[in-house]
Structures are given as C-alpha cells and as structure tokens.
Design goal:
Order of helices and strands of chain A: EHEHEHEHEH
Order of helices and strands of chain B: HHHHHEHEEHE
Radius of gyration of chain B: 28 Å
Helix content of chain B: 40-55%
Strand order of the largest sheet of chain B: 2-3-1-4
Number of helices of chain B: 7
Oligomer: heterodimer
Structural class of chain B: alpha+beta
Strand content of chain B: 5-15%
Radius of gyration of chain A: 13 Å
Largest sheet of chain B: 4 strands, antiparallel
Structural class of chain A: alpha/beta
Strand order of the largest sheet of chain A: 2-1-3-4-5
Largest interface: A-B, 45 and 49 residues
Amino acid sequence: MPNAAALKVLIVDDQYSVRQMTRLVLEKIGVRLIHEAENGQEAFNTAVAQPLDIIISDFNMPQMDGMGLLRAVRGHQAIRKLPFILITGRGDRELVVKAAQAGVNNYVVKPFDEATLRQKMEAVLGRIH
Amino acid sequence: MTTIDDLRQTFFEESAEGLAAINTGLGGLTEASPGETANTIFRAIHSIKGGAGIFGFAGLVEFAHVFETVLDQVRHGKIAPSPQVVAVLRQAEQTLAALVTMAQSREQAPAQFDADSRAALTQLVNGGASANDATKSDAAEFDDIDFEPIRANDDGAATQARRFNLAYRSPQARYDDNFTVVLKVLRAVGRVQLQLDLDAIPTLEQCDPRRAYIVCNGTIDSDLAAPQLHDILSAIDPSEAWRLGDEITAPRDQYAQ
C-alpha cells in the first residue's frame, strides 16, 4: 500500500500550465516528491537517472512524444516495468488503444480532478494512503 | 503559492503564443510542402486544446478538436492546403482566438458561435462526416474501449511483453551446433514457442549427411524491444539462421504470463 508522501512521480507535458495543474492535483492527493519534464526525451533521461514510482505523461510533445517515451521505457532493461499513465484528451481514442498495446498501465482523460487521478493511480499502484 | 487562477492565466499566455504560431504558420502554408508547417500549426492547436481540457473549457476543446483534425489531415497529405482550404483555416483561426478571449474573460460563447467555421472544417474532413460524436463528453468518448488497467507487481513493476515472429532455418553450408545455444539465450529473455516445419525437410535421399535440417517458425514474447532482440541475435548467431520478424499486434491478455 503506497504512501502518497513517499511516492516519486514524474509529470511529463510540454505546457507549463498543464504540468503545474497536474502537480496541484497530485499535491491534493498528498504526493510531495514530484519531478517534471517538458518532453519525452527529457523524461526518459530523468527516468533512467532517478528512482521513480510512476510516470504521468501527456502524448503530444516535441522531440519525443508520449508514445515514444512509453516505448523507450518499456524497451529499457532497468526501467521497463515502471508504471505509466497516459494523459489523453478529446479525439485520442486510437491513441489509447495503441498505448494499451505498447504496455501503458492506465490512462486519464482531461480534465481530471483529484478523485479521478487518485482512482487511476490506485488501479495501478494499489490503494494510496 | 501558485493558485489555479495563476495557472489559468499562464494557460492564456501560452495560448496567445500558440495563436501567434498558428497565424504565422498559416501564412507559410503552401501546397508545395505543407508537412512541417502544418505540423507546427497542429501542435499549437493541440496544446491549446490540451490546456483547455485541463482547465475545463469544454467549448474551446470541442472546436480545437475539429480544427486540429483538419490540420492532422493536412500534415499527413490527405488534404492539400489549397487557397480555399487556407481560407477555411483562417476563419477557424479567428474563431479559435475569439473562443480563447471569451474563455479568458469568463464569457459564455453565444449559441452557435462557432457553427459556421466548424461546419466548414468538418466539410473538409470526410465530406462533412464528423470526426467525433460531439454529443459525448470527453471521458464518455472512451467508455467503450476495452481497456483493463495493468496493476504493478508487488515489486512495483508492471508485467508487459511484446510478441514477435521468430523463424529458424539451419544454414546450408555446415552442421549447425549453435541452435540450442541461441535457443537457450532466447528463452532467457522471453517465452519462445516454435513449431517444426516438417514440409521444409527434404527426403532422406536428398539429405546431405554433413548438415542439419531444421526449419521452424513461431513467436517470442519478450519485454525487450526489437532493436535489443536484434542486437542479441547478431551477437550470438553469426550464421543468421534465426530471423526475428515483425512485432505482432495482439490483445494484451495473450501476453499474460
């Protein structure tokens, strides 16, 4: 049963406002150890270098998008089992199907609130206290 | 401390940058080479849509989605950016800018405000068939997807594997004593299933006693990606008797251990 305050979460989005909104939602859940990355490449470098419990990533980003990040993580021996939640939006149905085939653990549709994100994370990590 | 109002303001500043990028991009969008410019415009619209989604501006999300659907087709060469198409995109740009302004001033858009532009955009895609059912909410659009969350293992790890075609044909030049070695290595990195192809084996009269005749086809399920498996094979199978094929798209439950 993970403790929210001990969870290490990486938020990936190229938009500062979206990253910060996601951070606010995570902080409401009680998460304190939050890393941020602006694109998939930066996120991958962080994931390899930092111990993490879960990645929460947008899809459409420059340099390496969310699907590229997911595939890079799943293809890397050391972090291939790192839980991964994809942030999706209007019109991203096919993306979710592809992400499922690529090994995404769960997805969350924008806009999401504290309860929704908690439920999505708990479906992957177990009950967060 | 940063508040939601602060972040909302940041979103509108980002949107202004995005609208400027759309404006510049549409000015440079030509039929000769639309790809990269269309991609830049698409990304700007998509970012506005994404932020609008996070901050709950549903009308803005809806319109941006229709707008980006057209740009997606332009960037993939399915719609040529003729002057008539660019005119529709210019109209959409103005509509999007107006919707952003109304969202910023917390003003409700008048009914059917974006109807003309939306209809013109939709007409460009599939002759008017809507890309998505606008009557559904953002989340409801995903309701019928067959998706089960993957629970992380007790060690904090999720189990997932890819499946690839795998084939073996013994080399003709010599007896292959490497077959079992390679098979052991492949079994160490994944689950291998092979079937012997008896039809590919010659009759006894046709056999050369100096070589082996093994032909088999099957699959390997592995957490490793294709480049990693190729690297392994090239390192341990110099005769290139083993062939790693395409990744197979299969339901996730087929991968379950």
